[in-house]
Amino acid sequence: MSRKELPEINAGSMADIAFLLLIFFLVTTTMDVDSGISRKLSEKPPEDYEPPIIKMKNILEININRNDQLLVEDELMEMKDVKQFTIDFLDNAGGVGKTDDNGPGRACDYCNGKKEDDSSDHPNKAIISVQSDRGTSYGMYITVQNELLSAYTELRNRYAKNHITGKYAGMSYDELLLLETKDNDPLKAVLKKIKEAYPQIISDAEPTK
Amino acid sequence: MSKFGKKKKGLPAVNTAALPDIVFMLLFFFMVTTTMRETDLLMTAPKLPNATEVKKLEHKSLVSTIYVGKAKPEDQAKFGSGDKIQLNDKLGTVNDIANFIYSEQEKHNPEEIPYMTTSIKSDIKCGVGTIHDIRIELRDINALKISYSTRKGDLGENIK
What we know:
The complex is a heterodimer. Chain A contains 5 helices and 6 strands, in the order αββββαβαααβ. By secondary structure, chain A is an alpha/beta fold. Chain A is elongated. The N and C termini of chain A lie far apart (about 100 Å). Helix content of chain B is about 30%, strand content about 20%. Chain B has helices at about 1-5, 20-35, 75-80, 95-105, 130-140; strands at about 50, 55, 65-70, 85, 90, 115-120, 145-150, 150. In chain B, the strands form 2 sheets. Chain B has a 5-stranded mixed β-sheet with strand order 5-4-3-6-7. The N and C termini of chain B lie far apart (about 85 Å). The chains are: A alpha/beta, B alpha/beta. Chains A and B meet through helix 1, strand 1 and helix 3 of A and helix 2, strand 2, strand 3, strand 6 and helix 5 of B.
């Protein structure tokens, strides 16, 4: 008696079908993740809001005109010098910081600046104000923003390396950011501390017409 | 001797039974990672500025995108040659932004709304005035998280 086996289903073309689908998804896939310079806008002030009085020395004024020329503290400046100028301004530590929950403001004990009288008092008081023209190109605007952010990053990196103790000692801010995960509370506390040491205070003034 | 005589001639065929499995694995990978372009650009594709200090935008569903650029050359007679804004699949004006953001917010749970980000994809040649108008609109409706969409790259290309 001959045992008849069921004929096997020919699966040879399965690969072809899979390949077809694969190629379709290969072509339509886009791997690029949207990335950009993130910014939190200030809330709309109430109508009777009076802006607080800020000392001029705590404001770094940057103007960009419609020909994409740069004026920093009323002096023409090249893009390559902006970063160092910003660092010098933020890190100056000429006075005492803001009064907060920990009591009255203290002098910045982690700054490296020259302590000049006509520059900022403390990183948490230093404000950068960018005023552009309506005709300023967006590319120029983003380049300036990028320079300002890189100045902050450099200062934060330095602070993280020198003043963070414990598990995350000796690492830069950039490296710590890469480690950030959803629920890592000790790391979050460290990042918060670094951000508070050099808070980003960048304001966009109403553009000139 | 007959035992050895049975040996077949020629190379045995390579077993390809596992090939579909490999291909399917790749297929699933690409199926999961793929994102279809949902909106057709009605304007010339904006040339995004380059930057180095960038943050990745996570949670794609919480991001609403505003495109800023010039109308396509063939449409410029109809729309004019100034900076144009595209919201979803139609060109709009700054005044339409509030409605656009509200309709985006309606798709999400109320507790997610504070995490929603507006990504501005603007051409490097656009004026900051347009960007500022968008910012004012977003501020007025309390959509405060924004992101200026950029690419990683050389800053020198931003100014030309």
